[in-house]
Design goal:
about 20% strand; 5-stranded antiparallel sheet; alpha+beta; single chain; about 575 residues; 6-hairpin_glycosidase_sf; 5-stranded mixed sheet
């Protein structure tokens, strides 16, 4: 394909290629390619360590992320590691259909089927089957879903799991079942709805749909996870309002509400989501929870925030397209580790312990990973509050961050009933059109139409207004001009309606940029942020370990580079 000049601005498919480097690099080649879980980048030298999440959780997330990253980027390296991740994942299943954690010679954790792990397991099997149709993946997934149903405690209107760990032969405590001591329903039941629903949509599996029905009823009707005003229950029994599991549950409920056409369920989600974003910064930093981990943002939580916002936007709450684009452009993009000069690494392997720790080439191996716990202004969270300095990288955040890239990429251009919608103003190639974005340098996007479109609409940022929006349409050497001041050209609050478009047409849309400053609060900490359009280009106070928003350069004209925007045949939608 002939390359041309395109804007040198955020391109999510390229970020997915960088993520592939870290997904491959996390494998412990001296320990059966079991991936490391965490990294401490502030150590000299930096290191990677194993943990009890290494099995169903880590493998599930890596299998899912690798498939999504390959689909986006077209990268082909690391197929040997991908095959090991898949074979390892299948080896963790026992005859009962559940995925079990394994023993480790350096730790004394015991094998069990942890129910946080099970969500990552069915997620990966679903993506695996979606992408390949591999009967091994479907066989494992069918058996897994049947097991999830079999071991659930079943009440008249809700189902639940009475403990976080299941052991061969049954739940650890029959008394927990008698007393209905369901642990954190969001963490162990609510988040499962998302992959179970997708698996049902792909295969028609009725057990998966039934689990979705009863788990959703548990969360909404009986659990108490969400307070009446939509806020998160911060009681200790509810993991102090843990944001990742709450937002992941909202993502699941929103998808299920959209699937069922259940307006009440969508409204339930929107009420909590609207509260949740008031606890976050406008650029996407989220608290870890509402107590001890409040200062520790997980990339996982941000991606749940992105996914939920997208489903709500698709369901009619169109204002969330703008909210989500700010999250993608800012904290998701900043949380990906691309510059490695600050990481102190060594090629010496003498202190490595297979299955425990490695110090070998950590910077090279982790380039492309996402922050485990970050501060609003810094990759490394090293505050005086909460638990202080914790993991700088976590493999769950690498998996989630990659999925976040995919959610942004796959929803930038969408089609429904003949209407093609440009929802995010990001570089993106598609079968219908290419989007070339000059943001944040210029308020300008260029659309190159590949085939006739019945109805085309483009979201314009709310800060651009409408009176000064203008567009030029070029086709066969002729140019026609239009203005946003015509009120009949607007639909869905902020979408510019362009009507039909013809193959070969080039449409240039221009609007004024917003240059502004905002005061952002993150659990009592205050930051002044400088914005250029939807991008944060400066933050004060500055970070100290690997500062965020300190190296973003902006120009009067968008820099250009030679390249092409990837077009993927048979895109699959998550």
């Amino acid at each position: 394909m002939q390359k041309r000049l395109i804007p040198d601005t955020l391109t999510l498919e390229e970020r997915a290629g960088h993520a592939m480097n870290a997904i491959v690099g996390m494998a412990d080649r001296d320990y059966g390619d079991i991936p490391f879980f965490a990294a401490n980048l502030m150590n000299d030298p930096a290191n990677l360590t194993h943990g009890d999440w290494d099995y169903g959780s880590s493998h599930g997330r890596m299998v899912d992320a690798m498939i999504l990253a390959r689909h986006m980027s077209g990268e082909t390296f690391g197929t040997d590691i991908e095959e090991k991740y898949r074979s390892n994942l299948l080896s963790f299943f026992k005859e009962d259909g559940l995925s079990y954690r394994q023993t480790n010679p350096h730790h004394n954790w015991e094998p069990n089927a942890n129910f946080i792990d099970q969500r990552a397991v069915i997620l990966s099997l679903t993506t695996w089957f979606m992408a390949t149709g591999d009967p091994k993946a479907k066989e494992a997934a069918d058996k897994h879903v049947a097991a999830l149903k079999r071991v659930a405690v079943k009440e008249k209107d809700v189902w639940y799991y009475p403990a976080s760990e299941y052991k061969e032969g049954g739940w650890p405590s029959s008394n927990a079942i008698l007393l209905r001591l369901a642990p954190d329903p969001a963490a162990f039941c609510g988040r499962l709805v998302m992959p179970l629903l997708k698996y049902h949509q792909l295969t028609g599996n009725e057990d998966a749909l039934e689990l979705c029905e009863f788990f959703s009823a548990l969360i909404v009707q009986r659990s108490g996870v969400f307070n009446a005003d939509g806020s998160f229950n911060d009681a200790l029994a509810y993991r102090s309002g843990h944001f990742h599991t709450r937002l992941g549950t909202l993502d699941a409920l929103a998808r299920f509400g959209a699937f069922k056409g259940d307006a009440a369920l969508i409204a339930f989600v929107e009420k909590s989501y609207a509260w949740a974003i008031t606890q976050c910064t406008t650029f996407g930093w989220t608290p870890g929870d509402m107590k001890e981990q409040a200062y520790e943002h997980e990339t996982c939580s941000l991606v749940d925030l992105i996914a939920t916002g997208i489903t709500l936007a698709q369901s009619g709450y169109t204002k969330y397209w703008s909210v989500v684009e700010k999250y993608i452009r800012n904290h998701l993009a900043e949380s990906q580790l691309l510059e490695m000069d600050w990481v102190k690494e060594t090629s010496d392997r003498s202190k490595d312990v297979p299955g425990l720790i490695t110090y070998h080439n950590i910077g090279q191996r982790t380039r492309g990973a996402f922050a485990g716990y970050s501060a609003p202004n810094d990759f490394c969270c090293n505050v005086n509050h909460g638990r202080g300095h914790t993991n700088d990288l976590q493999i769950c955040c690498l998996g989630s961050g990659t999925r976040g890239l995919y959610m942004g990429w796959s929803n930038t251009v969408t089609e429904k009933k003949g209407t093609v919608s440009v929802n995010f103003l990001l570089n993106r190639g598609s079968a219908w059109l290419d989007v070339e974005s000059c943001l944040p340098h210029e308020g300008k996007i260029v659309l190159r139409i590949h085939k006739d479109i019945h109805r085309l609409q483009v979201r314009i940022p709310e800060w651009a207004g409408y009176a000064k929006v203008k567009f030029a349409r070029e086709l066969n050497g002729e140019t026609t001009n239009g203005k946003g001041s015509d009120p009949s050209t607007w639909v869905g609050e902020h979408f510019l309606l362009l009507g039909g478009a013809k193959a070969g047409e080039v449409i240039t849309i221009e609007f004024p940029l917003s240059l502004r400053k905002t005061i952002e609060t993150a659990v009592g900490q205050t930051f002044e942020t400088e914005w250029r359009g939807d991008d944060v280009v400066g933050i004060s106070p500055a970070g100290t370990e690997h500062p965020f928003y300190s190296g973003r350069k902006v120009y009067d004209k968008a820099p250009m580079r030679e390249g092409e925007l990837r077009k993927v045949e048979n895109e699959f939608v998550w």
